[in-house]
Every structure is written in structure tokens, then in C-alpha cells.
Amino acid sequence: MIQNEEKPEKELRLFDNLSQSDIDLLMSHAKTRSYKKNNIIMTEGDETNSLFMVKSGRVKIFVSDEEGKELTLNMMKTGDYFGELSLMDGLPRSTSAITVEPSELLVIQKADFEKVLESNPEIALNIIKGLSQLVRQLTIKARDIALHTVYERITALLTHFAVDINGKPTIRPKLTHAEMASMVGCRREMVSRIMSDLSKGDYITLANKEIIINRSLPEKW
Fold first, then answer.
1. Residue 175 shares a structural domain with residue 193
2. How many domains are there within the chain?
């Protein structure tokens, strides 16, 4: 079991509404693994054998084709988990995952996870809620790609990732233009042009490690 007086596992969404005893039981089966930046965690088509929880860092969840074109489905941060879909249906992985910065993950093997689920249905309910949220997110992404312009998708992305820091909406850590392009389904050059124009208009400030939204972004580009 991982020992930490501050119980950082409480930050993991998978453990929402669980008692500390239930959390301790699940954590007794978890192992911590450290990954460098750009380490592949899992690949689309892999056999299912584990669930991953992000203890620190960021992990990109994506799909790609034979030509190497990618579409980012999600960016997982501290407290998020992934790999649960294949654990539930037993089918091969439907997505790939790669670290975008040095990360620490908690890993639970499938057999151990299934044993815990048998006596802790609350965990299964949390996963069902998480999967429902994922379906909603993917539905919104599909709608945005089909019905919204690239500019509208980029501004929506900025708004989604922004959190209040010192009274201003801020994206930290900073998303790269390549990451943004993969998330909204466009070319990196288009993201660069739009971000440059927003910066010149003083709508955003592009700092070294963050993007600051200075005022409401214009509806049209």
C-alpha cells in the first residue's frame, strides 16, 4: 500500500464517494510507475490488462491512422484515470496513451481490479458515471468538428482548459500548437495563425509556460 499522510489518492475521481477503507483496499493493489516525457503507456489494439490513474503529470489519449495522423480525444491530468473501458468489456484497447511530460501513474492489474469490484460496487458506479461523461465529451467533440469553424473550436478549447489564476483565466501548463491542432482536428499552421492574431489583439498573452486570457475572446475570426 502506498503510504502518504496527506492521502493524495483522495484527489482521484475514481474514488469519489468511497470510504477510506475502500480506498485503502483498492490502493493495496496499486503500483506506482514513473514515466519520462513521450513514453507510450498503451497502444490501440493492445490486449487489456490494467487500469491507470494519474498521480502527477499529463497523459494524452489519442487515436491515429496508418499515415500517422492523430486526433487527441482527451488530456488526462492529476486525478484522472484511463483504460477503464477495456477493463469493462474485455476488448483490446480502443485508444493510445502517451505522456506529454514526466508523469507518475498508479497501475492496477485487471485481475486485482475485478476482485475489488466484486465487493465494492460503488467503484463500478463511479466508472459508469465516468464513462457517461466520456460519451458526452465525445458527442460534443463530434458536434463541434462537424458544425463549428476551426476558430470556434480553438476558442472553445481555450475556455475549456482555462482555470482562474490570479484573477485571470489561464491555461497552465501551456498547450502547444501541435496539441491544440490534434484536439480540434486541424493543421498546426492554422492554430499558429489564430493564436498569433489573438495575441496581437491582446486577447491572450502567450507566456513561457502558460496562456493567459486577458478578455473575452471574439466570436468570429
1. yes
2. 2
| CA–CA distance, 22 with 26 (Å, rounded to integer) | 6
Q: What's the number of CA atoms in the CB half-sphere (13 Å) around residue 23?
A: 17
Q: Which amino acid is at 115?
A: K
Domain interval for residue 105: 8-146
Q: Which residues pair with 32 in a beta bridge?
A: 106
What are 21-42's pLDDT values in tens digits?
777 878 888 999 999 999 999 9
Contact 73, 135 (CB under 8 A): no
How many Å apart are CA 13 and CA 51, to the nearest integer? Answer: 13
Its pTM stands at 0.72
End position of a domain, from candidates 103, 118, 146: 146
Q: Does residue 186 form part of some domain? A: yes
Per residue in 115-163, pLDDT (tens digit) is: 877 877 777 777 777 778 778 877 877 777 777 899 999 999 999 889 9
Instruction: Give the span between the Cα atoms of 119 and 157, in whole angstroms.
Output: 39
Cα 140–Cα 180–Cα 187 angle in degrees, nearest 5 = 100
The CATH number that applies at residue 155 is 1.10.10.10
Is residue 121 within 8 Å of 131, Cβ to Cβ?
A: no
Q: Which three cell numbers stand for residue 83?
A: 483504460
Could you tell me if residue 219 is inside a domain? no
- 130 and 205 share a domain? no
Q: Judge if 134 and 41 occupy the same domain.
A: yes
Provide the 10 A C-beta neighbour count for residue 53. 27
